C-alpha cells in the first residue's frame, strides 16, 4: 500500500506537468480551431531557460531556493511568452485565411525549427541540474510502515492546483476571458462588436506559453535532466491529455493530464515500463470509441 501511495503521488506529479502543457493546446484549439504543434517546443524552451537561469543564479551566489525559483519563474515565463508570440505571428497569423492544412504544416515546421535551434545552441547531450528541493514528509502510516512523500512532489502539485484555479478564474471573470470566449464562438461577430481578435489570439498563445514555461521549470526541478527532445515527447503526451479530457475544455485538459500521468506511472510500476506509452494510447483509443468528444468535451453544433 505504501508503494501504491508513492506511485499515485508520482502519477499526480507527472500528470500535473502534462496538464499545464495540455491547457495551451486546448486554448489555441478553442480559439482558432487548430492544434499548435510547436507548443511542446515552448515547454522545452521554458525548461532550458529555467536550467540556464538556475545555474547562473547559483554562480552568482543566490543560496535561497525559493528566491532562485521565483526569479527563474519570472524570467522563464517572460522569454517563453515572447517565443509564443513569435510562433503566432510567424506560423499562424499570415496563414489564418488559408486552407486548414497550411497552418498545420507551418506549425510542424516551426516545431522542427525550434528543436533544431536548441540542439545547435545547447548541444544534443543531456543537461543536468543538482537537486534543489530535497526531503520527504511523513503523511501517515500503513501496515506499520511510514508513508512518505517527497517535498518536490508536494510543491509541484500545489503550484499546479494554484495555477489552474487562478487561470480558470482569470478566463471566467476578466474582460480578456470574455473576449476569448466571444472569439471562440464567432470571430467575425466579435470583431464587429469591437473586440481586437488579433490581440486576443496573440494573448492566448502567450498565456499558453507561460503555462508551458511553468511546466518546464517544474519538470527541470523534478527530474534534474533535460535535452532538446523533451518537447516532442511531453508535447505528444499533453496533446493526448487534451484529447482525452475533451479538446477545448480547460478542466478536461487538466483531468486528461492527470489521467495520462497516472496511467503511465502505474503501468510502469505494476506491469512493464517498456509498454507504458502503448497503454496510454490504447486507453485513449478506447475512450474515444465510446466518447469521441473526450471525457469533458461537448459536441460542436454547426449552424448552416
Automatic annotation (TrEMBL):
InterPro entries: ABC_transp_permease, BCAA_transport_permease. It comes from the Bacteria. It is found in: Cell membrane. The keyword Cell membrane applies. The keyword Transmembrane helix applies. The chain crosses the membrane at residues 12-35, 42-61, 67-86, 98-118, 150-172, 200-222, 254-273, 279-301. It holds the Pfam family BPD_transp_2. It is a multi-pass membrane protein. Keywords: Amino-acid transport, Cell inner membrane, Cell membrane, Membrane, Transmembrane, Transmembrane helix, Transport. Belongs to the binding-protein-dependent transport system permease family. LivHM subfamily. This is Branched-chain amino acid transport system permease protein. It comes from Pseudochelatococcus lubricantis. The lineage of its organism: Bacteria, Pseudomonadati, Pseudomonadota, Alphaproteobacteria, Hyphomicrobiales.
Amino acid at each position: 500500500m505504501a508503494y501504491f501511495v508513492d506511485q499515485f503521488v508520482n502519477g499526480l506529479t507527472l500528470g500535473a506537468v502534462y496538464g499545464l502543457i495540455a491547457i495551451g493546446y486546448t486554448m489555441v484549439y478553442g480559439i482558432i480551431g487548430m492544434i499548435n504543434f510547436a507548443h511542446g517546443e515552448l515547454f522545452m524552451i521554458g525548461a532550458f531557460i529555467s536550467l540556464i537561469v538556475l545555474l547562473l543564479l547559483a554562480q552568482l551566489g543566490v543560496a535561497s531556493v525559493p528566491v532562485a525559483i521565483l526569479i527563474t519563474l519570472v524570467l522563464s515565463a517572460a522569454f517563453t511568452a515572447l517565443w509564443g508570440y513569435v510562433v503566432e505571428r510567424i506560423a499562424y497569423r499570415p496563414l489564418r485565411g488559408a486552407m486548414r492544412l497550411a497552418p498545420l504544416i507551418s506549425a510542424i515546421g516551426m516545431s522542427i525549427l525550434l528543436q533544431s535551434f536548441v540542439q545547435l545552441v545547447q548541444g544534443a547531450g543531456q543537461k543536468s541540474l543538482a537537486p534543489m528541493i530535497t526531503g520527504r514528509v511523513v503523511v501517515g502510516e500503513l501496515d506499520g510502515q511510514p508513508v512518505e512523500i517527497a517535498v518536490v512532489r508536494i510543491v509541484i502539485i500545489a503550484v499546479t492546483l494554484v495555477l489552474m484555479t487562478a487561470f480558470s478564474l482569470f478566463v471566467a471573470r476578466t474582460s480578456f476571458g470574455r473576449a476569448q470566449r466571444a472569439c471562440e464562438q464567432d470571430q467575425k461577430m466579435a470583431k464587429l462588436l469591437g473586440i481586437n481578435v488579433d490581440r486576443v489570439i496573440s494573448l492566448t498563445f502567450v498565456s499558453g506559453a507561460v503555462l508551458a514555461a511553468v511546466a518546464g521549470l517544474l519538470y527541470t526541478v523534478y527530474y534534474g535532466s533535460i535535452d532538446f527532445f523533451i518537447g516532442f515527447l511531453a508535447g505528444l503526451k499533453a496533446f493526448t491529455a487534451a484529447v482525452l479530457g475533451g479538446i477545448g475544455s480547460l478542466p478536461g485538459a487538466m483531468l486528461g493530464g492527470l489521467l495520462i500521468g497516472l496511467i503511465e506511472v502505474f503501468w510502469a510500476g505494476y506491469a512493464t515500463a517498456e509498454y507504458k506509452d502503448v497503454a496510454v494510447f490504447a486507453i485513449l483509443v478506447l475512450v474515444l470509441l465510446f466518447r469521441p468528444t473526450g471525457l469533458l468535451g461537448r459536441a460542436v453544433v454547426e449552424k448552416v
